[in-house]
Amino acid sequence: MASIPEQLARRQITVARTNSFKLDRPDAELRRLAEQGTVLLLTKGFYALIPEDRRGAGTHWRPTIEGVALGIAAAIYGANEVALIGPSAARSHRCYPRSLGSAYIAVPKQHRHRNTVLGEVRFVTRDMTKMDTVRIETDLGPGWATSPEQTALDLCRNRPAWNLTEEARTEMVHRLADRIDWDLIDQVAMSTRGVKTLHRLRGSLGRANS
Question: What does 91-119 look like in DSSP terms, one character per residue?
Answer without folding.
Answer: HHTT---S--SEEEEEESS----EEETTE
